[in-house]
Specification:
There is one protein chain. The chain is mainly α. The protein contains 5 helices and no strands. The model has no long low-confidence stretch (mean pLDDT 83).
Length: 109
C-alpha cells in the first residue's frame, strides 16, 4: 500500500502546474528591452539582461546578412545603441526591434 501512495504522490508532483508553468502568451516587448538597455550602465543585472536578450534574439534571426568581418560584440553594441535612441512603440516586440536594428545597419542585398 505504501508503494501506491508513493506512486500517486510522484504523479501529482510531476504533473502539477507548478512544475510545468503555462506558456507566456505574448513576446517580450521592445519597451521592456529598451528599459533594461537604458539602465545597463548603472546596473549589472540590467546589462546582463540587455546583452543576453540581444544575443538570444539575434541568434534566432532567420535572415542574417551581417558581414563575416563584423564580430558578435559589434552587432550587440550596435543593437544596444539603436535600442536606446528613443523609446519604441509598445506594440513592437523585442525580437522585431533587434532584427530591425540589424537590418538597417546591414541590409541584405
Amino acid at each position: 500500500m505504501r508503494g501506491l501512495y508513493q506512486s500517486i504522490f510522484l504523479v501529482l508532483v510531476f504533473f502539477s502546474p507548478a512544475v510545468h508553468p503555462a506558456k507566456i502568451d505574448s513576446p517580450m516587448s521592445a519597451l521592456h528591452l529598451y528599459s533594461a538597455c537604458l539602465d545597463a550602465q548603472r546596473s549589472e543585472y540590467a546589462r546582463g539582461f540587455c546583452d543576453g536578450s540581444i544575443d538570444a534574439f539575434y541568434s534566432s534571426t532567420k535572415v542574417w546578412c551581417v558581414p563575416s568581418t563584423v564580430t558578435h560584440g559589434e552587432v550587440k553594441q550596435h543593437v544596444r545603441a539603436a535600442l536606446i535612441k528613443k523609446a519604441p512603440p509598445i506594440s513592437l516586440s523585442a525580437s522585431d526591434a533587434v532584427a530591425n536594428a540589424i537590418q538597417l545597419e546591414w541590409p541584405c542585398r
